[in-house]
Amino acid sequence: MKTEQKKLLIITYYWPPAGGPGVQRWLKFVKYLPDFSIQPIVYIPENPTYPILDEGLQKDVSEKAIILKNNIFEPYQLASFFSKNSTQKISSGIIPAAKKQTLLQRFLLWIRGNLFIPDARVFWVKPSVKFLKKYIKENQIETIVTSGPPHSLHLIGLQLKKELKVTWLADFRDPWTTIGYHKALKLSLYAAKKHKQLEHEVLNSADKIIVTSKTTKEEFQAITKRPIEVITNGYDVENVTKQTLDEKFTLAHIGSFLSNRNPKLLWEVLSELIHENSDFALHFQLKLIGKVSQEIVDSIAHYNLNEYVNNLGYVSHQEALEHQRKSQVLLLIEIDSPETKSIIPGKVFEYLVSERPIIAIGPKDSDFAEIITSTNTGVFFTYEEKEKLKKTISSYFELYLANKLAVFPVGLQQYSRKKLTEQLVTLLKNE
Q1: CB–CB of 378/346 below 8 Å?
Q2: In this predicted structure, what is the pLDDT of residue 69?
Q3: Which of 14, 64, 140, 365 is an S-S bond match for 22, by CB 3.0 to 4.6 Å?
Q4: Is 321 helix (H, G, I), strand (E, B) or coil?
Q5: How far apart are CA 185 and CA 263, in angstroms?
Q6: Rounded to whole angstroms, how far apart are CA atoms 325 and 369?
Q7: What DSSP state is assigned to residue 278?
Q8: Which whole-number Å values give the CA distances from 297 to 105, 113, 180, 291, 301, in the listed order?
Q9: Three-state DSSP class for 45?
């Protein structure tokens, strides 16, 4: 006898052909949900303004998923009339340092933070509620999930919860008011208060809340008594052929390299090693893969590292996976701020299964530090541990010269996408 499938409506903004980390989480959940007798129905914008595109991800969309689309109006479409470059950078999260912002960039940030609350996709809320109310009733859907950021999507869930008898799970890939870039939005007192109010209402109206880190869970527990489940991001079984390691001693940063993630201690260490060790200078290369802010570029130049840089720009997800497996060492950099302790970059989990050592730099007590340490996949450093960082890079270089640079991971299975989907399904069944 065939088991009847449970229907799950997933409301998300990022979906192929969108590139970047935001698309991966629910793309992979949707891939595995049918294996657990759950029918995924994915609601996405018809005409989104994605800052990054990756057409290759289209192949990962499950054939068993039902895809619903509805038009969206985004003010970025109008803002690009003034400056397409500035608009695209701000949309993708690359916010220049305050001292280096142009008058136009400051103006656009002020508008983004104060006129579009909680974000620039807020105009999709009302048409989405209207569209989905009808669909939910006609198709007898009992459970919905909203995924943010953009946190406007949680307002869709909030309104549907008020008007219909649905179970609502609010999935937070990143925090809301404590996220690192919030301070850069030049919020007025009114706007800051409005963000807090909406965050409080969402957290106290959703039936269950999903977060990606234990620190975010602790932050939210101070705001709500609703049940909160930690389901991290993860890695999938990707079709990547065996890669030949780079001949150079490559340190590779893969993903957006934002202004506030500028690890000056790393540039200083690399500059010193180049001057102190002629072999290191001969073999070393810094690989940058993804969008890189001008502040990072300028800082690298300041430490006279330009001749050692291979800046490949944005590449497809498939190419990024290949570079993860062929690079000698992988760099993971997070902003040096207490607000970013909860951030676990999605690429962490792909790094874990790349079989390459990780050098991670971030604030003290970072959640991702525990993951890297417990899985034996690399070494974590705070921004104060310059000498420890220098010794580690030197030891990695010596192992590279001896052709012995490798890692021996443990306990990775808990972060597989299928295992995480199983955790999600358990949560859904315990409604």
Answers
A1: no
A2: 97
A3: 14
A4: helix
A5: 22
A6: 21
A7: H
A8: 19, 27, 21, 11, 6
A9: strand
Least confident of 5-9, 22-26, 60-64, 184-188: 184-188
CA distance 378 to 399: 14
d(CA 18, CA 232): 21
What does the H/E/C string look like for 350-383? HHHCCCCCEEEECCCCCHHHHHHHHCCCEEEECC
Pairing assessment for the beta strands 167-172 and 208-211 based on DSSP bridges: parallel
Strand partners, 169: 145, 208
372's CB contacts (< 8 A; 6+ apart) are 332, 348, 352, 358, 360, 378, 379, 380
pTM of the model: 0.86
Cβ(377)–Cβ(351) below 8 Å: yes
Please list the residues that pair with 361 across neighbouring strands. 333, 381
Decide if 343 contacts 213 (C-beta within 8 A): yes
- 18-60 pLDDT, tens per residue? 988 889 999 999 999 999 999 999 999 999 988 888 888 899 9
Spatial neighbors of 75 by CB under 8 A, at least 6 apart, are 111, 116, 120, 123
- DSSP secondary structure string, 293-319? -HHHHHHHHHTT-GGGEEEEE---HHH
Token pair recorded at residue 143: 């459970």
Is 94 a residue whose pLDDT tops 70? Answer: no
Which pLDDT belongs to residue 337?
A: 85
Q: Are the CB atoms for 142 and 10 separated by under 8 Å?
A: no
pLDDT number for residue 186: 74
Residue with tokens 């949309």: 91
Nearest alpha-carbon partner for 117 in 200, 195, 28 = 195
The residues pairing with 289 across neighbouring beta strands, listed in sequence order, are 254, 313
User: How many CB atoms are closer than 10 A to CB 426?
Assistant: 12
The first and second tokens of residue 298, run together, are 């300028």
For helices 103-114 and 189-203, what crossing angle results, to 10°?
40
Question: Is residue 267 within 8 Å of 300, Cβ to Cβ?
Answer: yes
Greater pLDDT, 335 or 147: 147
Q: Tell me if 344 sits within 8 A of 371, measured CB to CB.
A: yes
- pLDDT for residue 3: 57
The pLDDT value recorded for residue 80 is: 43
CA–CA distance, 392 with 385 (Å, rounded to integer): 11
∠56-36-355 over CA atoms, to 5°? 50
Does residue 82 register a pLDDT over 50? no
Specify the DSSP class assigned to residue 4.
P
Instruction: Output the pLDDT for position 258.
Output: 83
